[in-house]
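Structural prep section.
Before we set up the soaks we want a predicted structure of the protein with magnesium ion in place, mainly to decide which crystallisation condition to try first. Input record follows.
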Amino acid sequence: MLNIVIFGPPGSGKGTQSTKIVEKYNLIHLSTGDLLREEMENETPLGKEVRQYIDKGLLVPDEIVLKELYMRTSEHMDSPGFIFDGFPRTIVQAESLDEMLRKEGMSISLVISVEVEEEELHKRLMGRGEDSGRSDDSDDIIIRRLEVYKEQTLPLIAYYKKQGKMATINGMAPVDQVFGKISRAIDTYLESHKIIPVVE
Ligand code: AP5
Ligand code: MG
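Run finished without errors. Recording the C-alpha cells verbatim:
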C-alpha cells in the first residue's frame, strides 16, 4: 500500500494537490476538514459539535477526529492506499495513526510537506473566502488558523523527520509545477521501494 500524508499550513494547497495525486496514483483521499464540513452541512449532532471549533479556527478535539477518521479508513482497507489531508495535526493524532496502521500491517510511506510563505497563505485564503462559503475563511479566523498550525501542528515535522519520511516541497509556484515536484518525490519513493503503482 502507498499511504501518503500531505502536510502543510492552511492554504498551502493540500486539497488542490490531493485531487491531482488521487487521479495519478489511484489513492483514497481522506480530508478530515472535508469530512467534518460534510457533517456540518448535514447538521448532524457531530456537525453541530464540531462547528464551535471550526468556526473559531481551533482544532477539533483529537478523540472526535480520530473516531471519524478510523471509521472512514476502515471502509476502504482494500484500496491501493490513502492520502491523508489535514490529518494528523497533533502528535496524539500522528501516534494514533501509526498505531492504527500498524494493527493492519501497514504504515505511512511518505509525508509530503508543502511550504508556503505566510503572506501568500493569507492572500490565497482571503481570495478563496470571496466565494468558498467556508465559515473559517475570514481575516481574523485565518490568522487564528495560522497560529494554531504553528503551535500545535508544526511539531509534527520533527516527528516525521525522525522517522525519515519527510519530503519537503516548495509550494510557492503554480499548481502544476508544485504537482510536478510532488510526483517526483512519490515516484522516487516507489522506485526505491520497488512498488508498482496501481493504475486503472
Ligand atoms: P482543513 O479543511 O484541513 O483546512 P486547512 O488545513 O486550514 O487548509 P485549507 O483546506 O484551507 O487549505 P489547503 O492546504 O487544503 O489548500 P487548498 O488546496 O484548499 O481544516 C479546517 C478546520 O477543520 C480546522 O481549522 C479544524 O478546525 C478542523 N480540522 C480539520 N482536520 C482536523 C484535524 N486533523 N484535527 C483537528 N481539527 C481538524 O488551497 C487554498 C487556496 O489556494 C485555494 O483557493 C486554491 O485554489 C489556492 N491554491 C492552491 N494551490 C495554489 C498555488 N500553487 N498557487 C496559487 N494558488 C493556489
Ligand atoms: Mg484543504
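Observations: The pocket of magnesium ion (ligand 2) is lined by residues 14-15, 31, 33, 86 (CB under 6 Å).
Flagged for discussion at group meeting.
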